[in-house]
Hints:
Blueprint: E1 17-23, E2 27-29, E3 42-45, E4 49-53, E5 60-62, E6 72-76, E7 81-85, E8 92-94, E9 97-98, E10 105-106, E11 112-115, E12 119-125, H1 128-145, H2 152-207
Parallel strand pairs: 4-5
Antiparallel strand pairs: 1-3, 1-12, 2-5, 4-6, 6-7, 7-10, 8-9, 8-11, 11-12
Amino acid sequence: MPPAVKRLPPAPSSFSLTLAVVSGPSLSLSGESAPHGGFVGLRNLTKNRVTVGRTKASVLHVRDPGVSEKHAIFQWTGATWTVTDVGSSNGTIVNGDDLVVGVPRTLKSGDHVQLGLESAVRITVGPVEEANDAEQNHANNVAENGTEGAGARDVDEESVTVEAFLEAEAVRLATAIRERATSHVATLRKQAQVAREQMQSNATVAVA
């Protein structure tokens, strides 16, 4: 008889995981709802293993065509929360880093998790009240400054910076290759000219 699988109890309230929808379609939790009195965009995970996908069979159902049917898993390990991409088509990104399929990534408050192409959530690890306070502060910051503040905006700016760097590097390399090729062609032409002159000289000597 195979040994019984040890089941971890749900995360204590002090380590509760709450997701705040940053972008993309709304997220539906099977059998669960937004925290009482909280923001509509908040989803509090009370299970210790939450599957994420486009189908209703997933605990966290994402109505986004860019999300795979079986996309990722949020998991309570007994000490921390992790997120793992389970082989999605468009990937899972945490703070701008693409996750390796099957390799868990430890989560902390403030982390930005992108699921597929459009859907993204902001993470809070702690009591639900902290998540409500964090989102209230975020909403106030947006209202006062007209910006998204930390989180998605930081990742976007970093991505733009990386893209600009890669584009500049590509231009630099292309220029260097073109210059080297031009120099190499000039050298070959010079060598060919010297060879022709040498052949003509040898032919003249032979005739004489």
